[in-house]
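May I ask for an example protein's residues together with how it folds?

___
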Amino acid sequence: MTAGEIERSIIKKFRKEIWCPFVKSVKQYELISEGDKIAVCISGGKDSFLLAKCMQELCRHGQYEFGLEFIVMDPGYAPKNRQRIEENADILQVPVHIFESNIFSVVDSVTQGSACYLCARMRRGYLYEFAKKLGCNKIALGHHFDDVVSTTMLSMFYGAEVKTMMPKLKSTSHPGMELIRPLYAVRERDIIDWANYNDLSFLGCACRFTERVAGKEEESKRKEMKELLAFMEQTNPEAANNVFRSLHNVALDCIVGWRKGGERGSFLTDYHK
């Protein structure tokens, strides 16, 4: 498959499954504005490379005038993994800026807490910094529908709170910067089908800590949520969709308690009015 054929597969073969949900999210959540300069963050996996191709296509033919940069942070990848990223960027004609950090070395010294959580937080900081140097005001990440749903379930089952992954966020550490997730409504199974259809092979988890207890525990919980959803979809095919839709349809009159901006609220506040 040539880069052009791979691009066309997104808007033709996978129009319903990928392109339409991608465009809908961009519009529904107002992810892109005229004059934006967006750094698409590429980890080397299927999700971020698909995002890069979707953003290229939207930039060429969309209704917005905006700029793009494609950035890859090498946190200490094995040489073969970095080579795979560079090869896929060449195949897909994604002009990447690669910069290095010492995140893997830092996280390797962590003995308590979640290595995955620390790594993700550190990565985001480095990405914001590099994107800002390139003149960008937003970074785009490749999180998808399944990430949103599994995060919601994890927060309820393991965090005792109702919370989800947002389609966009303002950075609290880098003023003027935002994070957007344009693949918010795209199913992971459709991303896998797209990669297989185009005979593309991407990195899985290239992290050196996947065999450590903290990493395995966190990953196993997310896997547990996906397996639970798959089981539920056997009898209710709309189970995952309904979790996703419920995030857009919260009945506030039927919520016992909540918190916002550090303050807590209760249904009792207005109960006797």
In short: Strands lie at 37-41, 67-74, 96-100, 138-140, 168-170, 178-180, 257-260, 263-266. The chain has one domain: 3-207. The CA atoms of residues 253 and 260 lie 16 Å apart. The longest helix spans residues 213-235.
